[in-house]
Give the backbone structure.
Amino acid sequence: MKRLLAILAIAMASPLAAGAHDFTSGTMYIDHPMIQEAPPGARVLGGYVTLHNQGAEDDRLVGIETPAAEKVELHRSTVTDGIARMQPMTDGLPLPAGEIVWLGDNGTHAMFVQPDKRYAAGDELPATLIFEKAGRIDITFKVEERSTDLAPGHGEHPQ
Ligand SMILES: [Cu+2]
């Protein structure tokens, strides 16, 4: 019994490892693109991904496309005087050479607007990440159960 509990504890301590998947194209390493499961009828879904620009030149994530939603916007959430707001990241997400950037840090996220159906944990959404220099890279976002482990702001995406 103790052994079983230990195994459960390990499994629960690393919820991300279970759903981990990654993609590489050229010098761009794309780790763990995920979308948080939302309640039925949700009009938007929040997406997150880790990007490691392993090249010598700075790059930038300028957009995301998917056939699974009306559109995808890059947003940054801020809380001012207790009021949450989202702002479009009109210049995209900068990816300095050699650095690892998490779309998810500081309230950043990809907002999937009007998904074509309800996506539940375990589902996958095809998407294309569009980079200024690395070009278009096809990936899939995996839907995961809503987690409170994500940084502040992620769990409260306005629906
Ligand atoms: Cu948003």
In short: The helical segments are 2-13, 15-18. The chain has two helices and eleven strands. The domain at 20-146 is CATH 2.60.40.1890 (Immunoglobulin-like).
